Structures are given as C-alpha cells and as structure tokens.
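Weekly modeling sync, notes
Attendees: S.R. (lead), two postdocs, one rotation student

Agenda item 3: backlog of single-chain predictions. S.R. asked that every request posted to the team notebook include the full sequence so nobody has to chase files. The rotation student volunteered to paste the first one in as an example of the format we agreed on. Action items at the bottom.

Example entry:
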Amino acid sequence: MYDKILKQTAHRSSSLPNGAWMMSQKWENLLFMHFPVSKQALQSYLPDGMVMDCYQGDAWVTILPFEVSDMHFRKTPSIPYLHTYLELNVRTYVKKNGIPGLYFFSLDANKLLTVLGARMTTLPYYYARMDMWREGNTIHYRSKRWGRSKASLQASFLPYSSPYLPKQESIDKWLLERYYAWKTNRKCTVEIGIHHMPWEIQEVEANIQTYQLTPFNFENLGKGRVVFHFSPVKRVLFWPMRILK
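Predicted structure, as returned to the notebook:
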C-alpha cells in the first residue's frame, strides 16, 4: 500500500520530502469549507517570510473537520488510545521559497495527549470537546474548544455526488493539492511534509450552524461564494518535521 502511494507523484506541485516517511494516518469524513477572504484582512496575521498565495487574486481560508484513525509510526502498529481522534484545522494558503503550501492558524483535537504532544513541536493545537455522528447519509460535527475560548463549530453535511478528480488548473485542485505546511514562532519556522494519492472528492451540501474559529472577524469571510468539498477517506504519510532557519 505505502509503495503504491509513494510511486504516484505526478499530482504534486512540489517534490517529495527528503528521506523516509515517519508516520501514517488515515483521514476520514473530511469536510473542506473554503472561504474567500480579503487579502488586507489576512496579511497582518501572516508572519515574516510567509508569502500569501492567491487564486486569481483572491486569498482563501479553509476550515476542515475530520476524523483521524490508524495513526502509527513507520513499521509499528497503531498507537493505543491515540490512534483515533477528531480534528479541526483552520488554515490559509502561502508560499515559502517558491513552494506552495499551508499555514495553520489553529488545530483542535479531542485527545488531550495528542494536543500536548503536538504542542511540544510548536504546532498550535488546542483541546476541544468534539463529536461526529451520522443520521442516515448526513454527517454531523460539533466542536467547542475547552476553556474560556469561544472557538467552536457546528455543521451538518451530506455528500451527494460520485467521487471525481479535480480538473487541472481548477480552483478545486489549487485548494486541495498541498503537501507542505509551516508554522512560525519567535525562534524558528517548523516545516511539515506530507504525501498522499490525488484527492478524489464529492459534491456536498453543507449547513454551518455555528462558526467562530478564525483570528479575524467573520464578516471578513464570505467575500464570494464558499466552496465545499467532501472526501470519505485518505491515507496520508508524514515526514519528520524540519526546523528552518
């Protein structure tokens, strides 16, 4: 399985990371909610060295709830207790040294040990109370960050089309096919390299009941049409994090 994933690289906009992959996860029931955003509203939240990446002049922020399962390190079985959990990412689109990728504003998870471990690598993880359940073909997702924070999401979504591959040069492919991510703190920049097969996605009807996640005001979102994608499952490979100067 892993050799097959590694051999398929034509869909990437950048080369595979150097060395051997370190960890694998299976991502399930992914709802991508892509919001066009004012470039002026977004720019002040990006650190030095991160260049905003735009599609036809527009900046974007993506909210992504999903389930992680079968997490394990290379040549080892799944990690007891930690191998499955719910996650919620808030990210935007950047370039670093000419490579397109992602910049994370926040990552929420419902396993405290996962959050504590990830925070040791400087990633902005937060502990949240989360639920995901099905009613027929409709998937419901609910998240509320622990503590005094108001960060929350409640949404329902119903995939309704057959899976398809995004077209070349489409906004769908531009939004989805990203294989590097960065997070900067006062001392350094952390780089995460991943790889997986091309995204196969479905059209989805989504209803967002509660939303409060980005560091800027909600009215700065919705500059244009929100783009939704759904993917039922994806096997992902992770490389060791790199500290950049």
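Discussion: group reviewed the output briefly. The mean pLDDT is 90.
Action items: rotation student to repeat for the remaining queue; S.R. to check formatting next week.
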